[in-house]
Design a protein that fits this description.
Elements (H helix, E strand, L loop, with lengths): L13 H7 L4 H14 L2 H13 L4 H6 L2 H20 L4 H17 L3 H21 L4 H45 L3 E4 L2 E8 L3 H18 L3 E9 L4 H16 L3 E5 L3 H10 L7 E2 L3 H11 L9
Parallel strand pairs: 2-3, 3-4, 4-5
Antiparallel strand pairs: 1-2
Helix pairs in contact: 2-8, 3-7, 6-8, 7-8, 9-10
């Protein structure tokens, strides 16, 4: 996925993000000052956060084991200690990306993550208001902490979305490969049985998978079995014709098998010119013809 220099994801860098969120050195100094004020009280703030978390449905799902809860609490302590240290370099950016990747892998919803960050911001805001500072200083400190927290959120969420997109792309690719299983059944012979509906996208996937397999195997014959295709209309017939023409350009002859009487009648009624396309009514006939053309003879054992 393409990312600009200001993105919080893979292509971003910390300097660009600080500029994007208008975080200055003064902001970082105020966050560090807040860290000194919070001191040992940070552990108490995290404790209050977990008390809030216990009311969410996800709590039992993710933190049902006491060992897991204690480990996550320690990680949470480290996370916010790093946040308040405000050492904004590329190492900091990488730790936040790792958090986004972890949340995506375990399946934590973004709604829960946003709610959790909002709750922590509320706890930080309360702590700022209790500080022995003038009102103007409190306001500036609260604004600096808020900008930092928004930056953190953007990095985690952008990485989370990137991980989800990669997973969906991989799943789509797997489904495509499952729906277009071009198989070499003999040297020089490929077979693809199609089941279901053929739309434009699936036709492209079939063509891409077929041509790639022809290039890989140098096959001479390709059998496209459509006995499992429920409906053949003008669009489907045209897709099939394009596939056969493309295979022919690569030196591979295509036979369409599984042409039922109803499909044949539909093609005739639609007035579709199938031209030089070779067809058979059954896959058995297509296989017998293919073996014969590559010099193989199948005989029935006595």
């Amino acid at each position: 996925m393409n990312r600009t220099s200001g993105s919080a994801g893979e292509g971003g860098n910390m300097a660009a993000l600080l500029e994007l969120y208008r975080i200055s050195e003064d902001d970082l100094d105020r966050v560090r000052e807040f860290a000194k004020m919070a001191g040992s009280g940070l552990e108490g703030l995290i404790g209050q956060w977990y008390e809030w978390l216990q009311n969410l449905p996800e709590y039992d799902h993710f933190f049902s084991e006491p060992e897991t809860l204690e480990r996550v609490k320690r990680l949470q302590q480290d996370y916010w200690a790093t946040f308040l240290a405000a050492q904004m370099d590329d190492s900091y950016l990488e730790t936040r990306r790792q958090v986004g990747e972890t949340h995506a892998r375990i399946g934590l919803s973004l709604n829960t993550y946003f709610a959790g960050m909002d709750m922590m911001l509320e706890l930080f805001t309360r702590a700022v208001h209790k500080a022995d500072l003038k009102d103007g200083a409190k306001l500036n400190m609260q604004e600096s902490v808020t900008k930092m927290l928004h930056l953190d959120t953007s990095i985690v969420v952008d990485t989370y979305n990137h991980m989800v997109e990669e997973t969906l792309t991989a799943q789509a690719k797997s489904l495509m490969e499952m729906s277009t299983p071009v198989t070499q059944i003999w040297s020089g012979i490929l077979l693809l049985p199609i089941v279901g509906i053929i739309d434009s996208k699936r036709a492209r996937d079939i063509m891409n998978a077929t041509l790639a397999k022809i290039g890989e195997t140098q096959a001479r014959i390709f059998i496209l079995d459509i006995s499992g295709v429920g409906v053949v209309d003008t669009a489907v017939a045209n897709h099939l014709i394009k596939i056969t023409r493309a295979t022919r350009l690569m030196g591979c002859d295509c036979t369409i098998s599984g042409v039922s009487p109803s499909i044949a009648q539909t093609i005739v009624d639609l007035g579709i010119d199938v031209g030089r396309i070779k067809t058979t009514s059954t896959m058995k006939d297509a296989l017998a013809d293919a073996f014969q053309r590559v010099g193989m003879e199948i005989t029935q054992a006595s």
